[in-house]
Amino acid sequence: MSILDRKIDDPELKRATETLTPDRIEQVINSVLQGETGARLKAYSEICMRCGMCAPACHYCVSHDMDPSYSPVGKVEQTMGLMLRKNGRLSPAEVYGMAQIAYTECNLCRRCVHYCPIGVDTGYIISTVRRICHKLGVTPLYIQDTAHSHSATMNQMWVKEDEWTDSLQWQEDEARDEFPGLRIPLDVEGADIFYSVIAPEPKFRTQLIYQAAAILHHVGADWTMPSTPGWDNSDMCMFTGDFEMMGRLKRSHFEAAQKLKVKRIVMGECGHAFRSVYDVGNRWLGWKNHPVPIVHSVEFFWELFHEGKIRLAKKFEEPVTIHDPCNIIRGRGLMDKLREVTHALCTNVIEMSPTREHNFCCAAGGGVINCGPPFKGVRLEGNRIKADQLRNTGVKVVVAPCHNCHGGLEDIIHHYQLGIHTKFLGDLIYECMEKPEPE
Amino acid sequence: MNALYNFATGPLAWAAFAIFIGGSIYRIWSMIQLAKQKEAAFISYMSWPYALRSIFRWFIPFGTLGWKENPGITVATFLFHICLLVLVIFTPGHEVMWDYAFGISYPTLPEVVADGLTLVAIGAACFFVHRRLTNAQVRYVTTKADWIALGIAAAPFLTGFLASQQFGDGQIMTLLHVLSGEAMLVAIPFTRLSHALFQPFARAYIGSEFGAVRHVQDW
Ligand code: SF4
Ligand code: SF4
């Protein structure tokens, strides 16, 4: 099967490709290939042995009964391979297919790296394909909307400045009923911790800010959030290929922290944002190390448990399993810390198989879930293996410290009728920690 | 015939080695220049310990997830490359050439062992061919370049074996063996066989990324 047999209607992909001409396509592709790529792409495209060893790595391929057009090398062949073979002279229809593969059929999860004897980084190749699509102006509608939001508001969800501080004050208000004296401190200069979140938190999951505030209050942290842009650590521009905007976002995030002269940034439970601040955006800006130290909340929670700062009133008794988010596991090696925290909270942890850095992706990451409803089926059918993995544990609760994973897993759980609930670590800590007696 | 043979093992052999060595150095040098020019941000994360860790790990058959989940290709790949290296150096006929050209002599494998290893390599090559034809994921991405690379890599074994068995006109087979070996040398820097040159770099890079930046293993 090829991508043209499974073309999905996306209004923006359609509109954008209709305006393209072969000359324009050729010029843009070659400008990126010559201007922005180098030894990695050259070596990968020359020395990939077309051995197909990476095929069983990819959840899309496995979930489609090993359909070769979903294998990592198969997807590279239909995108970068096609461009190289045709010296960039693609038809608009081919560009449509290429964009559909790059944005919706690869999560950039890098599981395939564990399978390739050569060391080909398919995630990098597909990112480069997306970069080309971005420069051609060909991106799926929904994710492009979030990218536009980033450039207009410096956050992903069109949250206005007053709405941001309103949400925080509203959560502070609510939380003070339960935790008298709790504050969500804004713009505190010199605080130990700058807490940053992704924009969907104030927009849709405000209770997570409530919980984070409760936990930070419980451990007596010296923390703050900024009232100005830079509070959002998320980054859909990294995934659309709009690297210029990615750079602006990361700069604004770090600068917000620098202006407040905080000791470090602690981020909420999100994977893609971590990838962006830790691994991708910083390099684009030319920073080898981060101007402000940054930790993911899994690591932060682990520290709190190690220092004995979290006092638990109870443990979570129901059996749970752990989903390892690619971006903080394959991206930062937090698998041991994630386990230690989960075991500290739960009495019964049942591991999936495979697990840790070999875990299958949730199929939401890499911006795929952000491509919106037209492509929901791609994720659901493309990750049957994850449903099998979850079902085989027999548990009814899965711990996943990442927003994307939550969205993806919830869709899979619903579609395959698994009857499982997803939990953040913050949910569990909030649920199990000691709380003041209600007055 | 003799003149042709002398030419193939004399000037042509020198030329093949010169192209192989010069070409390899040039390719590696220009690739490093390109990386320095375009990807400094990525080279800056290179780490010797993690690079070597990755390279050694992938040298262990079944030592990585990729090797474990692809057992057939794993066995064939290791056998093919081991036989290639051992035979290139320790075949009696090759040692004679070294001795003749440079006065270097060293112990070699008995003929029958060399023949056995050659058959093993041919068997592995047959497996590669079979897999390319029958495995859906491999067939989907196979191009002419893959067949050429495989043909060039397998030919010296086939001709070497036939020559040692005195198949047909022994001298013609030996000549073909010499020519196919030279073709392989020349092809290494300029075809997909360049994985021999660049695989260690690609591994070193991804090993460094995974080890030094992402704090995780790449296998
Ligand atoms: S989804 Fe993951 S395993 Fe599949 S090709 Fe993309 S990076 Fe590789
Ligand atoms: S495993 Fe590596 S070398 Fe083999 S086909 Fe996949 S990307 Fe290419």
List the helices and strands and how they pair.
The complex is a heterodimer of chains A (439) and B (219).
Chain A: H1 11-18, H2 22-36, H3 39-47, H4 59-63, H5 72-85, H6 92-104, H7 122-136, H8 141-153, H9 161-178, E1 193-196, H10 200-204, H11 206-218, E2 223-224, H12 237-240, H13 243-259, E3 264-267, H14 272-284, E4 294-296, H15 297-306, E5 320-322, H16 326-329, H17 335-345, H18 376-381, H19 384-393, E6 397-399, H20 403-415, E7 421-423, H21 425-432
Parallel strand pairs in A: 1-2, 1-3, 3-4, 5-6, 6-7
Chain B: H1 2-9, H2 11-38, H3 40-43, H4 48-58, H5 65-69, H6 71-90, H7 92-102, H8 111-134, H9 136-141, H10 144-164, H11 170-187, H12 195-213
The structure holds iron/sulfur cluster (SF4) (2 copies).
The site of one iron/sulfur cluster has 15 residues of chain A, from helix 5 and helix 7.
Keywords (chain A): 4Fe-4S, Electron transport, Iron, Iron-sulfur, Metal-binding, Transport
Domain 4Fe-4S ferredoxin-type (chain A): 39-69, 97-120
Pfam family, one (chain A): Fer4_8
What are the main properties of this structure?
heterodimer; A: 439 residues; mainly alpha; Fumarate Reductase Iron-sulfur Protein, Chain B, domain 2; Rossmann fold; 3 domains; 4-stranded parallel beta sheet; 3-stranded parallel beta sheet; B: 219 residues; Fumarate Reductase Cytochrome B subunit; 80% helix; 0% strand; globular; binds iron/sulfur cluster
